[in-house]
Amino acid sequence: MDYIIRAANVEDCKDLTRMIMELAEHEKVTDHVKITQKDLEQDGFSKNPFFHGIIAEVPEQHRSKEGHTKIGYALYFYSYSTWKGRAVYMVDLYVMPEFRGKGIGKALMSEVAQLGLAAGCTKLNFIVLNGNKSSLDFYFRQGCSDVTADLGYHYMSCSGEALECLAQP
Asked: pTM, whole model, 2 decimals?
């Protein structure tokens, strides 16, 4: 199947919003999604973006059943490890179901890895939903390891009222 992987731009935010919701539906967490198309436009395409993105796009003749040509994406940002140095964190990797199994997810992840290496990163980090066995299997086939199991780390988060309270001097 013909497809291209390219840098996302502000005009892609409508499709990114659609695919983020599709991913949330797949993971049964749509109620967790609070961002809007406008948030993506501001946060990803301003002078100092909070994230970067890449898009998988097919030609018109291969568009989805719903008529979409933008059929996958990866969002990522750069971070830092005090043990390993520069790292790239992949927030999302998504390919529409009808386009899976064609190497598109691998191509997206490979591009994020290439961009990370070009920026001097030594690690690619991401999280996977516990019950997502097919994704876990895919990542293991790519040579990734589960550091939760290997190192016993817990991914922690502080948000909402707890974050507000924590921010008080």
From this structure: 0.92
